[in-house]
Design goal:
Layout: H1 2-11, E1 14-21, E2 24-31, E3 46-48, H2 53-60, H3 64-72, H4 86-99, E4 102-105, E5 112-120, E6 126-135, H5 144-161
Antiparallel strand pairs: 1-2, 1-6, 2-3, 4-5, 5-6
Length: 165
Amino acid sequence: MPIMTDLAARLNETCDLSVYNRGEVYFIEVVQGSRALTVAAAVGRSLPVHATASGKVLLAHLPDAESEAALEGPLVAHTQRTITRPGELRRQLDVVRAQGFAFDDEELEPGVRAVSAPVRDRDGNVIAALSVTCPTSRLPLEGVSAVAAEARQAADAISRRLGWR
């Protein structure tokens, strides 16, 4: 996908496109960064929805009943930073909807941060999430908003190709 390839080349980091299915996030496209230290991802791999930036984007835009069902299951801690309380995750999903992107601050893997933005269909429904995943050494907290802007721009470009706006 040229938009993802361009984003990965511009940031020199791993980019992925994910979809939601039954409480998990699945990679459907991955463009690896070319640095020696990169975050590995593989098409078809699934990750827990509550502990990933892409999962939070997708959860934030699911119908309420489906989102609540995902929050009912145990929210397993993968690191000390994983959100495991449904109320806290609900509050974060409100922030995701308001700011237009999600952030994973070492919630799935220590030393890894990710930023994700929604991809929409022609009706504006969120159907996928585009993420940029980096080692924390290359994505300090003060750099998150810049990467989020890049991810949102790329996600919007994909959405426009799908007929949105």
